[in-house]
Amino acid sequence: DGVTEVLAHRSDNLQDKFMEIPCSEDYDNHKRFAGCTPRRCGRGVTDAVITREEAERIRRIAERGLALGGSDGGASILDLHSGALSLGKHFVNLYRYFGEKIHDIFTEEDFALYRDVRQRIQQRIAQVFGISPSAMYLTKPTFFSRMNSTGAKTTHDEYWHPHVDKVTYGSFDYTSLLYLSDYSEDFGGGRFVFMDADSNKTVEPRAGRVSFFTSGSENLHRVEKVQWGTRFAITISFTCDPQHGIEDPLLA
């Protein structure tokens, strides 16, 4: 793996840490949107947007939803927007599968907190990259993840491969992760790794920590395999293309 530097230790309490990186050419292969498509690229970490207490409340939403299903392998997802929930080796639609019972699992307050957290992350990304929050749209997939050390059963469980979000999803322009558990306390392994030509730069998850970055090849990344315990996070993705925008989830 070469040289590894820690960009953010779990014990750090970071107001704002930002590294600017030259933009890749990935954005040239897609329609550009003035005032949004990245012209300044980089990656940031902040512990000042979401409190630990809010992260714990959000984690409980994830735990309740994922308790209804869960992958046979080590990585489970819950997408409140589309309703996708890992179940065994497949996915089900949470809303269709559980119908009216969904109101016994989630509350309006849960969804209001989720929206509020999403908006604050969007505002911080916009502020750091010098764009208007209204020029960015939430896009899919935006989802909770729960990872443990169980071996992979399908390719969906193999979360540790290096990838570029813009190449994988096309619509992504800005990616963020909100961590809901603590590295070395709740789980081992599972650090987030930016893979640069000269070194790897890792982010150690901490409940309430937000890591965000432009989605092109300038931010090739992977997640280490979780060795023990359980790692919870939310991936929240943004696009500049209104055609790829999705709405906040509603408790129908």
From TrEMBL:
Pfam families hit by this protein: 2OG-FeII_Oxy_3 (PF13640)
GO MF term list: dioxygenase activity; iron ion binding; L-ascorbic acid binding; oxidoreductase activity, acting on paired donors, with incorporation or reduction of molecular oxygen
GO cellular component terms attached to this protein's record: membrane
Cofactor(s) required, per the database record: L-ascorbate
Domain Fe2OG dioxygenase: 140-242
Domain of life: Eukaryota
InterPro entries named in the record: OGFOD3 (IPR039210), Oxoglu/Fe-dep_dioxygenase_dom (IPR005123), Pro_4_hyd_alph (IPR006620), Pro_4_hyd_alph_FE2OG_OXY (IPR044862)
Keywords: Dioxygenase, Iron, Metal-binding, Oxidoreductase
Protein name: OGFD3 protein
Natural source organism: Zosterops hypoxanthus
